[in-house]
Amino acid sequence: MPVQPATNIFEKHNHRRCLKGGMDEARALCQTQGLRLTPVRARVLEILLESHKALGAYDILAILDMDGMGRQPPVVYRALEFLVQSGLVHRLEKLNAFAACCHQGSAEGRGHEPMFLICTQCRQVAETSLKEVEGSIEKCAAALGFEVQSRVVELIGRCPACQGGAGL
Amino acid sequence: MPVQPATNIFEKHNHRRCLKGGMDEARALCQTQGLRLTPVRARVLEILLESHKALGAYDILAILDMDGMGRQPPVVYRALEFLVQSGLVHRLEKLNAFAACCHQGSAEGRGHEPMFLICTQCRQVAETSLKEVEGSIEKCAAALGFEVQSRVVELIGRCPACQGGAGL
DNA sequence: TCCATATTGTTATCTTATAACATATCACTT
DNA sequence: AAGTGATATGTTATAAGATAACAATATGGA
Questions:
Q1: In this predicted structure, what is the pLDDT of residue B110?
Q2: Is the Cβ–Cβ distance between A124 and A51 less than 8 Å?
């Protein structure tokens, strides 16, 4: 699997590669980890990969319903739980929403804990490494004797494309 | 108003001072800003100041109800909105819950954007400055051309007191 | 084929949050 | 003191997000 630099999704990019690459990666991951990428799970991932936007569980469910793949909340929540646990999808706490992981094949692969940059206007979500921030975070935590298990870092603002127009 | 160092709430401390100091500060703030600390607002703040724990809106509402101060969700949500906007209370995105700001009189006063340390076991929430982390955060954002409007930084883990016992 | 396990279908319910509108209170002017 | 506009509260209803529980089915290995 070729290792490529992380895509800056705010720049013009070959989005087909995000979609295809994401699906290929998911299949490969499930293969090696003995996980099952069932039709519903694959479709949910695909829906999320189709844009870099954060989607709510019920938005996804509506699409599944149109596809005839289920209309009850547990259908989508179970698929999302699987995808989040495998690192293929991330949960955005600030939005109560989900976005596909777009770091396939990059140096910061799955299992990483990213920082998110969330555009309030277009809802696009970029993902970047927490590595550079992590040191100072751990230092603060250590100073208080706190044992860090996981981190939520989400920046709310405007992406380059949305900065021109009217403010939100 | 005396400026005192920020309290480490994970250490033994004079909690009465947190409560009294918090209320005094709130009254002073509202005085100078022309805001109204009405009975419901004051009571919600007091409920949150009584511990350093994160409480859900409906937890708070149940207490208000026992006090005979209202039983409908908008009562508590409106009070919380006011308190969050004035910087007296913070919202914890990861928990969909709220905690009183405990930086009264400290150098990093109100209006700051803190980092939160949330204990999964006892639900206590400590607050510390984002100052030291902010630089590296802004750098990442700038590299992507992203305009940051606000930040969510929440560390999930175990506070010193909860580290001894069984893991969660 | 049979079994244990993992997955999906379905119903019901729970938690969190807000819209909308009526009523009351406050703070200021006359 | 009465009027007035803005702010705050009371109340009903409902939206939005999430999960518990159990029945039915599919899957992969013995």
A1: 58
A2: yes
**B5 SS3 class:** coil
| Number of separate helices (H) and strands (E) present in chain A | 5, 5
Any CB–CB contact under 8 A between B14 and chain A?
no
Q: Give the pLDDT confidence of B94-111 residue by residue, as tens digits.
A: 999 999 998 765 545 556
Is-contact B159 A25, C-beta < 8 A? Answer: no
Q: Is B126 on the interface with A (CB under 8 A)?
A: yes
Domain boundaries, chain A: 15-162
Residue A57 Cβ < 7 Å to strand D: yes
Q: Report how many Cβ contacts below 8 Å link chain A to chain B.
A: 130
Return the CATH fold of A15-162.
Arc Repressor Mutant, subunit A (1.10.10)
- The dotted CATH code for B15-161 is 1.10.10.10
Which range is least confidently modeled, A105-114, B5-14, B159-168?
A: A105-114
Please state the rounded mean pLDDT for residues B28-42.
Answer: 95
Report the C-alpha gap between B2 and B153 in whole angstroms. 28
Mutate to test the interface with B, among A108, A139, A140 (most CBs of B within 10 A): A140
Q: Dump pLDDT digits (tens) for A1-16.
A: 444 556 789 999 999 9
